[in-house]
Amino acid sequence: MSELTTQLFSPENLVDPYPAYKQLRDESPVHFMPEMNLHVVTRYDLLREAIKRTDDFSSKYDQFLGGAQQMMFMTLSEEQQAEAMAISEQMIEIPPTMLTLDEPEHTQYRSLVSKLFTASQVKKSEESVRAVINKNVTAMKGRTAADFMGLFAGPVPLEIISDRLGIPDDDREFFYEAAAAAAAGLKMAPVPPEVLIHRMQLGLDLQRLLIKLIEARRVEPREDMITILATSKLEVVDRELSHGEILSVLNQFLVAGHETTTSTFGWGMLALCDDPTIQAQIRGDEKRVKTFVEEVLRIEAPVQGLPRLVARDTELGGYPLKKGDMMMLRYGAANRDERQFANPDSVDVDREKAGMQMAFGSGVHHCIGAPLARQELNIGFYELVEHFAEFELDASKGRPVADPSFILRGLPKLHINYKQRR
Fold first, then answer.
1. In this structure, is the dihedral angle defined by the CA atoms of residues 369, 374, 375 and 381, taken in order, positive or negative?
2. Please, which residues bridge with residue 308 across strands?
3. Which of the residues 84, 149, 298, 299 has an alpha carbon 20 to 30 A from that of 215?
């Protein structure tokens, strides 16, 4: 393989991985990266197959995430390591729950929160979602330029997930900062030591806030996710969830419930700026808005990839794998596979079966909050093009560049110009 693919996870290729993805799909769809000790899967059909073969490819990849955290810890000085350890010792240990478990344990936890994501519950939440979106649309009025990430793409999902979790108004400002820090940690990008330690302190403080809310909900239940987790029992063992188990589930929703939606709002706005004809094509057309959202999720998957642990000696697409090998399923590569999607690098608001994209995963680990994310995105983009027109990049700020992230893919800034329609 060329230098391009052997350096797939270099900062440059993390910013723009798509040429390397294409080369891997064409030449080596399951490819070993010795510097990461990873077997990277990039072709759509092979990802689908790997996700279905849960007996061969396990989601118990905690060791991978733990190894990445240990590598970051080793970059600290002895004094900083001592400070980090002092924070870590005060934190509750987080056990695996949904994301990093296989069946049947995975479903034991997933079923506890699935009641929040039924069709009736999603419909029930529409009014509150619209209220948040309309408030932030109003905030965009009276001006002609903005950092879209800071003014709309970030605040909307954060406020909505805060409402769904049940975070009190007085704690929102801290919660927003801590949630952003939790998502940033999953990017697995190098950061200065002081930033890493600050994130750890925020994580500890967030644990303390959530535990306080868990205990409060056990005394006085409400209609929110914290109440459901605080008052539910694991049926197999007939016991309440521990603080650690609840924190584990909440942490997953914290990142999945806001960071991925924020990223998709950003990439969608960039697509509108890059191709002004799309703005007119989707305006007032709910069906095309929905297809547009699926296309943005496909073109720029907010979660570029997740690991799998090889559970026994096997093969994938004729490529041999041994028990204990670590794989990386790259959804971002599969979503641009021309074997599955015609003109894969272009947004097509009339694409048939656009929902076949894999941004939300597939199979038993398909993102449980996908209906709520789609609801936010569909309503959000419908209202944005309804109220505004002539979205374009602010040339004075330069073209936005993605964060060089190993797992997540998002824009830190997106400076735009626009005009108000109504």
1. positive
2. 327
3. 84
